[in-house]
Design brief:
Elements (H helix, E strand, L loop, with lengths): L7 H4 L32 H25 L5 H23 L1 H5 L4 H22 L4 H8 L2 H13 L5 H18 L9 H20 L6 H19 L9 H27 L2 H4 L6 H13 L5 H26 L5
Helix pairs in contact: 2-11, 2-13, 3-5, 3-10, 3-11, 5-9, 5-10, 6-13, 6-14, 7-8, 7-9, 8-14
Length: 329
């Protein structure tokens, strides 16, 4: 491709990213491993299975979070959850070394990413205490659509007509999904939508931080959530029971295990095959919502989620197709 711009190489990369609302890393942790690690042999069934397991764990983590914020403050959840996650990551942090952690490339972009992820996770936990989990998961499934829509004004990327149609199609799904309940017209739904937008901006910034190891990105965003939690947790502090303290710790543990599962899935099978399985999160969210919280999805939410999933899959397919086209500098 002649006359390429600095954005062209990024354009060939799919926007669709793994969605994990309450942690919001959105990137593969594989680069936390030593560079000389031999690649794993391809095993597509195992990759699909690990992907489904990882998404299940992500949603289970969100279910625990929704359960806990009914009793404890968002600050407490962020503080204890982030501390547990950092402890889980400590072996990888030790291997990475203090210099890589303290002096990441593009420090200003890394700082902006930390601020966005911290705002996103706070929005998620606050909103999920008021509205059904499936509704929030539906909104967050629209993140790849927001990323594609923002690619032109923020990155100068060209967006062709089919993707413009998919963006409009997906936004219609978001509007439909937000309509059904009275909660859509109160503060929690806009807060959840704001969290989704923060998440989308974070994914865009992450694309410009490909030289930064995944473990460094995750460590800084966990640290940001830890600091925010430490600052606001004294407000309305409720001393947790031993059982609930264990559940608060499990938030960080389960999220880390979920990332490990997804990371292994991406190593065992091509992303083009396993990425669509991220949308199984709506299935788990609906099932957990019914069984644990008694939240039955209504028709409008299901229609909206179907439109969002269709738009997201089309965008992913389209960008995979563009990425496979031969090009030259």
């Amino acid at each position: 491709m002649t006359g390429s711009s600095p954005h062209d190489s990024d354009t060939l990369r799919p926007h669709t990213a793994l969605l994990e609302p309450s942690s919001s890393t959105g990137e593969d942790l594989g680069d936390a491993a030593p560079e000389d690690t031999a690649p794993l042999p391809q095993n597509i069934p195992a990759g699909i299975g690990l992907m489904i397991l990882g998404i299940f764990l992500f949603v289970a983590n969100d279910v625990m979070g929704k359960w806990l914020v009914a009793t404890y403050t968002v600050g407490q959840v962020l503080l204890i959850r982030s501390a547990a996650g950092l402890v889980m990551l400590s072996p990888s942090l030790w291997k990475t070394g203090a210099r890589a952690l303290l002096f990441p490339p593009s420090p200003k972009l890394n700082l902006l990413r930390v601020l966005l992820t911290t705002c996103e996770v706070a929005c998620f936990y606050w909103a999920v205490s008021y509205i059904p989990l499936a509704d929030i998961v539906t909104l967050y499934m629209a993140a790849p659509i927001f990323v594609t829509a923002l690619a032109y004004p923020l990155l100068g990327e060209k967006i062709d007509a089919p993707r413009v149609f998919a963006i409009v199609f997906g936004f219609v799904g978001v509007i439909i999904a937000m309509r059904p309940s009275s909660a859509s017209f109160s503060l929690p739904a806009p807060v959840a939508l704001s969290g989704c937008i923060f998440f989308s901006l974070m994914m865009i910034i992450t694309r410009h931080l490909r030289g930064t190891k995944g473990i460094v990105l995750v460590t800084w965003q966990s640290t940001g959530a830890l600091v925010l939690g430490a600052l606001i947790s004294p407000i309305g502090w409720v001393t947790p029971s031993l059982r609930d303290f264990g559940l608060l710790l499990m938030l960080g543990v389960v999220a880390t295990l979920a990332h490990i599962a997804v990371n292994k899935a991406l190593k065992l099978a091509p992303a083009a095959i396993i990425m669509p399985y991220q949308y199984t999160q709506i299935i788990w969210a609906v099932l957990f919502g019914i069984v644990i919280f008694g939240d039955w999805p209504d028709q409008m939410m299901m229609i909206g989620s179907a439109l969002i999933i269709a738009a997201g899959l089309f965008i992913f397919w389209r960008e995979q197709k563009i990425g496979r086209k031969p090009h030259s500098d």
